[in-house]
TrEMBL record:
Family that this chain belongs to: Belongs to the peptidase C48 family.
Descriptive protein name: Ubiquitin-like protease family profile domain-containing protein
Domain Ubiquitin-like protease family profile: start-end pairs: 23-91
Alphabetized InterPro entries for the sequence: Papain-like_cys_pep_sf, Peptidase_C48_C
SUPFAM superfamilies membership: Cysteine proteinases
Stretches for region Disordered: 168-187
Length: 187
């Protein structure tokens, strides 16, 4: 959706708005983690007037700097485009926020020494992706967390139930073999 903001499905926006979002007036900050060339950085949008866009990067790179700033601006424009849907704004007379015109601030957090991490985070594997997905789904911020937990427990119970049934059958067969051993032939 974010990669093609002019092509997103209205039903997808309705779903996101109904299940995960608040009206614009009730939001004071939006945190958008971003990645470029295997490096994470953060855009913080503070919607309290006059509004600010804050770029936080713990490993600034002069070569990548302009590309990262472009990516931040793209995200701000995307959010501005989403807010064209008046259903995101509580009162219809509210003026559409021009997020892309908010003041831009470049934070200066302590910088990482990149060579210390060489070889550690070169590739994200399936286990890391699964851990991240679980953290996102199971976090207290997710209003569907209890529903997801219930479905997971139900599925687990079915799987364990099947495994328990198979184990009981296997033990029963072993017990029958011990009670009625097949005749052995000796020479």
């Amino acid at each position: 959706m974010a990669m093609r903001p002019n092509e997103f499905n209205g039903l997808a926006i309705d779903y996101l708005r109904e299940n995960y979002m608040r009206k614009y007036e009730k939001v004071s900050k939006v945190y958008i983690p971003m990645i470029r060339n295997h490096h994470w950085f953060l855009l913080i949008i503070d919607t309290t007037p006059p509004g600010t866009l804050t770029y936080v990067d713990s490993e600034k790179d002069s070569i990548e700097h302009s590309a990262r700033i472009s990516q931040l601006n793209y995200a701000a424009l995307f959010l501005e485009r989403v807010l064209e849907d008046r259903n995101f704004i509580k009162h219809s007379p509210t003026k559409k926020p021009l997020i892309s015109r908010f003041e831009f601030i470049e934070a200066n957090p302590p910088q990482e020494v990149s060579h210390l991490w060489e070889g550690y985070f070169t590739e994200v594997d399936g286990q890391t992706r699964m851990r991240l997905a679980l953290d996102l789904m199971m976090g207290t911020h997710n209003p569907k967390e209890s529903e997801i937990t219930g479905m997971a427990i139900s599925t687990w119970d079915k799987i364990v139930g099947r495994a328990t049934t198979k184990l009981k059958r296997k033990k029963k067969k072993q017990a029958e073999k011990e009670l009625h051993p097949s005749p052995s032939i000796s020479f």
